Amino acid sequence: MQSVNNVYVASTATLTAPIYPNQEVFEIFYPRDKVSRKVYKMAMLLAQQVGIYNRSMVIEPTIFPRKKLLSNDHTPKNWGLTFLQKISDSIDLSEIGFISVAYNATSHQEILPNLACQIAMDAGLELDKMPNEIAYYGCASGIFSISEAIDYCRTHQRAAFVYVFDQCNWITNPIYDMDNPNFKASLRAHSLFSDGGVGILLIPETMRYQFPGPLMKIIDINKKFQLGDVIKMEESFFLVRKGVSETMPALTAKCSIKPLLEKHSLTPEQITQWSIHQGGLPVLSAFKEDSILGLSDEQIQRSKDLFQKYGNFSSPSCLYVLNSFFQDKQTHKNSYGIVTSFGAGYYFGSFLYQWE
């Protein structure tokens, strides 16, 4: 007999800003006529080495470093409303009683009332719990939003909408002075990020009958925190310091993933679907080390493919991978999946699901 406390991922969707070849993005951020020859050469070399084919941006590239959205379609509010419109194909929006929004970097300027409230009002949602907005929790913020939505579904027996996005290129502010001690950390930060979002509909067991196809049943979630500053903002500059691949995968496995596996008597080999935050190819490869998780090439391949295709979306990165698993429906009955993310703070979050 199934518990009425079961919660399911019932629908997912992604939204990506306009896409540019990665080399072109570097040319925009490090223009040949505005930086030294050596800085330009270093930037172009990194563009080849980072392993990203394309990146997406909400900013108008022709006027950089001035910041302007390409169009009104790419405001964070309109992205959120677009996701709700997509969800309305499968559920009446009156059945959604909670909305949780998460992000780190946004072009949204009209901050009162908060973005979650604005989306809920414009969509005409009938909420029975205050909208939740989780900002600046690093790349794990989406997991924290999902946790809030799971709790809501279990206690209120209504659907919850989770909207996770980032527009990291809106805060692009490269350092061009090689003598600046933060030059390399700035260059590293500006080599990774894309702009996009993910919308997720969560439903309680009592609504399961409305979705006849296979769904992901969320089994458990684990959130942890440890102080650290490898990833940070300093004097308006976005910095990713050396050591992320040595620091974050080991901490994530120790603090977030392994306790979740041990609690449910599972091993990494038993998890067939891994949605790992794509902090970079070295970060993903670190999860293959025996001392961390010992994952196979196949287990990290989906995360790797999406990183190479788009780069790092920040908060929604791991959820882009989850969406790819949800949409292709190439599942095996009762197979397990783990979604995990980690970022500035440091915040860690993972959840375990099982296909019915």
Describe this structure in words.
The protein is of the alpha+beta class and 356 residues long. It folds into 2 domains: 203 residues, Thiolase/Chalcone synthase (Peroxisomal Thiolase, Chain A, domain 1, 3-Layer(aba) Sandwich), CATH 3.40.47; 140 residues, 3-Layer(aba) Sandwich (Peroxisomal Thiolase, Chain A, domain 1). The chain has 10 helices and 13 strands. A 9-stranded mixed sheet has the order 5-4-6-7-1-8-13-12-11, with helices on both faces. Strand 9 and strand 10 form a beta hairpin. Helix 1 runs antiparallel to helix 2 and helix 3 crosses helix 4. The radius of gyration is 20 Å and the shape is globular. The two termini are 14 Å apart. The relative contact order is 0.18. The model has no long low-confidence stretch (mean pLDDT 94).
Describe how the helices and strands are arranged.
Elements: E1 7-16, E2 19-21, H1 22-29, H2 37-49, E3 54-56, H3 76-87, E4 96-103, H4 115-123, E5 132-135, H5 141-156, E6 159-167, H6 183-189, E7 195-204, E8 216-228, E9 231-234, E10 237-240, H7 244-263, E11 271-276, H8 281-286, H9 297-310, H10 317-328, E12 336-343, E13 345-355
Parallel strand pairs: 4-5, 4-6, 11-12
Antiparallel strand pairs: 1-7, 1-8, 2-3, 6-7, 8-13, 9-10, 12-13
Helix pairs in contact: 1-2, 3-4, 9-10
